[in-house]
Amino acid sequence: MTAAARSLKKNVSQLVWLASWLMIMRIVDIWWHIEPISHPSIHLSWLHVTFIAGMGGLWMAYFFRNLRARPLLAVYAPQTVRFLEPSHE
Fold first, then answer.
1. Could you read off the pLDDT tens digit of each residue along the chain, which spans 89 residues?
2. 73: alpha, beta or left, given left = phi > 0 and alpha = psi -120 to 50?
3. Which residues contact 73 (CB under 8 A, 6 or more apart)?
4. What is the C-alpha separation between 20 and 15, in angstroms, rounded?
């Protein structure tokens, strides 16, 4: 792993920006493949935005419901205590 990739993973704000950019570009990619079939010119209506927000909301609701039901760390794993201790690098 390169030093740039390692530093990107440690900086949370850059990681959130990168993840957001990837999701937006994926939506644009899907739209780019589907929309030209039905309209020869660029056409964006309120239904496009509503559908994306609705699907994203359903996905987030499902994700957070599952997140509440399962622990983030393995409770009985021997490494859990080591993960919870602060690192002194």
1. 577 777 777 778 888 888 899 999 998 888 777 776 666 676 778 888 898 899 989 999 999 998 888 877 777 777 777 777 776 65
2. beta
3. 80, 83, 84
4. 9
Taking the whole predicted model, whether its pTM rises above 0.90 is answered as no
Backbone angles phi, psi at 44, to 5 degrees: -130, 120
Q: Which amino acid is at 10?
A: K
Of residues 42, 22, 23, the one with CA closest to residue 32: 42
If you write DSSP's letter for every residue of 8-32 in order, what string do you get? HHH-HHHHHHHHHHHHHHHHHHHHH
**Structure token pair of residue 18:** 């990168």
